[in-house]
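BUG: 3D viewer hangs when loading the predicted structure for this chain

Environment: internal workstation, default settings.
Expected: structure renders.
Actual: progress bar stalls at 90%.

Input used:
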Amino acid sequence: MLERGVPDPAEVCRVFGLGVPTRHWDRVAGAGAHAVWRLTTGTGEYAVKVFDRTVDHTAGPGWRDRLREAVDIELAAHRAGVAMPEPVRPAGGPATLLAEVPAGDGTATVRAHAWVDARPVTDRTSDPGLASAVGAVLAGIHGLRTPSPHGRAEGLWNTQSDDHLATLAARARSGGHDWATALDRARPAYHAVRELVADRHRHGWPLIGTHRDLGPRNVLVDASGRPVVVD
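Structure tokens produced before the viewer hung:
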């Protein structure tokens, strides 16, 4: 039996041209606010995201525009060679990657990507090389300069406060990680960067595209050790 608001996998296959399901799909654990399903069909394996329209950037007016902008950033990153799951477009649909799929008495907003076999990263992973590689990916995304005509001034996308960094450094120190001291020493510079960005933001400098949620749950590591960015 399907969950409320979740489309039938056969409908997802029809809308995205993915062939015929060969088994019942499985919900992916730890996917966050929006449900992700692993779908196996005659043409391959796919990650299918079903958006919950009551949370995060899909809530409230203008959510379609915000999602389209996120898609534009993702497509630009994919074209630039960022390691990420390959996006799947709806069959015969518009340029957007989003599709409305019949679900119960209404529709569900759905996206699809090729499935990637890779291991997850946790918040206890300590790998300076991986961290550096993920930082380089984020810097590359920031350099794409994708247009954001619908971008809203929702505050700075900044998930880590100075207090959080202090707590993180203390946790790292207690765990014996050698980068704890470097993180602690970097806090003044981090604070200065925050102030600089806030000042530029107040003066209306152009927005740039970013991932916005590039944490452990949105990074996978493939067999070669390369980070793969998702979501």
